[in-house]
Structures are given as C-alpha cells and as structure tokens.
Specification:
By secondary structure, this protein is α+β, with helices and mostly antiparallel strands. It has eleven helices and 15 strands. It has three domains: about 1-85, Arc Repressor Mutant, subunit A, CATH 1.10.10; about 90-225, no CATH class; about 240-320, Alpha-Beta Plaits (2-Layer Sandwich), CATH 3.30.70. The chain is globular.
Length: about 325
C-alpha cells in the first residue's frame, strides 16, 4: 500500500510537515508521522527520504538540517517559513495609480501588464485571465473601475462611501476611512476603518456595487498600522470569517488540515479515530472547496447550510462525470 503512494503526494506531505513543525524533526519523528517512510527496512526508508529531500532542494525548497543534540550527532529537519513563503505584495498609492493607468492603456500589453502577471499570485492559472477586453492585464480583477478613485482616497487620507456586496447577504452602504490598498490572491482590497461598525475592515473592490463617493477628510490609521496584517486569510478565503463550522477529519489528514488555520479548535476524537473540530467559515464557495479538497477524509457536520452546500457541490461533480 505504501508503494502505491504517488511521489508528488509524498513530497507534498513532507513539505507540509516540515513547514508547520515548531522545531526540527528527526528522521525517526518524521517516520512516526508520515506512513510513506514507515517501512520495515529502515535503511530503505532513509534512502527514500534522502532522495525526497534532495528533490525538494533542487526545486528551491529550503530543507534545513539542524543538529538536535549537543554533540551534533543527530540531525533534525525543517523548512523555515521566512525562506519558503513570499511576502504579501503591497504598493504605495502612487505606484498603484501608475501601474493601473499604464496597464490599461488602450491596445497595450506592455511592461506594466507583464509586471501585473508576475506579481499576481497564480498568474497564468486559477482564473487569473484578462477580464472583458484584451487590454485588461492578467491579475487585475473587476475592481478596475474603482481602483483609481480608491488610490486617490488612500493617498489623500480621505473618507469614502459606497455600496458593498458581502460574500453573503444583501448589499449595503459603507462609510470608510481609507487607510491602505493591498493586492492579494489576484484581487485588490481597500483597508480602513468602517465607521458604522467602528472597527478596521477589508473590502474587496470587485464587490463594490456603486460609485466611490468622497465624504471629506478621513481619520488616519493608528500608529503601527500594517495593511498586510489586517487582511485575514484562511479556509474561508480572504477577509473576516462569518461563522464557525463543525468538520470531521480522518486520522490521515487531521494533523495537516488544521495546521496553521487561525481560530481552528479541536473538539474531540471519536472512537472511529476521526477528529471533530470547529473551523472559521463563510457561506461562499471558498470554505466548501477547502473541505472538498480532502476528498473522503473530511465531512461538514454543521451548520446545515454549509453541509447542504457541500452536498450540492459533490452532486455537481458527480453529474459532470
């Protein structure tokens, strides 16, 4: 059964483990977690691990070997997140305006559009295609009509009003002190203080359903404000989660399914070995897609609306086969 595991699955599991570990793991500890290396012949398993480690290094993944004892006899392995993950991309308002105008020049697909392609996460795939006319740059979503006005508002520390359509629910008015613009996951976000809710919020520009109205001078952000730290991301997508889902995970995936998910909480381990956990969620497609990515090893238990959404998604897949 171990021999049937696809090499890519083995490498992905190894990367996930070494990224999320809080300390370097010895080969024996890795064997205890990943079944791919838990072979009767330890020497064979170690050779396989060494080949996998070399493969990851060859493709640029920084697998570090660190001494785990004072005599430096035994080694532990880890992947430092600061060397593996790219930082979030953000621009000053002036840079945003310049790139946007250049990339939208009629009939042009020059350096600015190419810059957007390279800077947009997942460029060339994942739905990041030119929207509408051919002049629209890859990586820019439907926020195009609003981006220049929002950039001006951020640059001038202005207060803006607009109608906003959240992931679920009806569109409503928002009154926001514009603090920053951030490009993440192929979309532009305005970050600022929502005056109605009296707290910092993020707004995806593609969900703005009205013109941007200038409402006068805005209040500046608090000292130490960092835009990249305000935009939360998780299984619910980008922004703030709307609810909490109860999800069951099989022993095969639970250790990495919940790793790094902010706000996730383990509830209990059942007699069948499955673990039930609470995970922040939204009613949109992002959360359901995340659960379904684990295949038969994850099941939505509650709330009912999310469970039914997962069932509908599965039925749609089956109908398309």
């Amino acid at each position: 059964m171990l021999a049937a595991m696809h090499p890519l699955e083995r490498l992905v599991n190894l990367v996930a483990l070494l990224l999320e570990t809080g300390r370097p793991l010895t080969f024996e500890e890795i064997r205890g977690v990943l079944p791919a290396y838990d072979q009767p012949d330890k020497a064979s398993a170690k050779r396989q691990f060494e080949r996998d480690k070399d493969t990851l290094r060859q493709i640029g993944i920084p697998v570090e070997a660190v001494a785990t004892d004072a005599w430096e006899v035994e080694e532990g392995y880890r992947i430092p997140k600061d060397r593996y993950e790219l930082p979030d991309i953000s621009f000053t308002p002036e840079e945003v305006a310049a790139l946007f105008v250049a990339a939208h020049a009629p009939g042009q697909d020059g350096d600015a559009a190419l810059a957007f392609r390279k800077l947009a996460p997942g460029a060339g795939g994942g739905g990041l295609e030119p929207a509408g006319d051919a002049a629209a740059p890859v990586g820019v979503d439907a926020s195009g009509p609003h981006l220049p006005q929002v950039a001006d508002a951020v640059s001038g520390r202005r207060r803006v009003r607009f109608r906003y359509r959240p992931v679920s629910g009806r569109a409503g008015r928002r009154d926001v002190d514009a603090w920053a613009l951030l490009f993440r996951g192929g979309a532009w976000y305005l970050l600022g203080r929502d005056r109605g809710r009296k707290e910092p919020r993020s707004f995806r520009l593609s969900r703005v359903v009205s013109a941007i109205e200038d409402a006068g001078p805005g209040k500046p952000p608090p000292e130490g404000f960092k835009a990249s730290e305000q935009l939360r991301v998780g299984p619910w997508g980008l922004g703030e989660p709307e609810t909490t889902a109860r999800v069951a995970f099989s022993p095969k995936v639970v250790w990495w399914a919940l790793a790094g998910v902010p706000g996730a909480r383990t509830l209990r381990t059942r007699r069948d070995g499955w673990t039930e956990a609470e995970v922040p969620a939204v009613a949109g497609d992002s959360f359901v897609s995340w659960v379904l990515s684990f295949g038969p090893d994850a099941r939505v238990l509650a709330p009912r609306a999310l469970r039914e959404a997962a069932v509908r998604a599965l039925e749609a897949v089956r109908a398309a086969v």
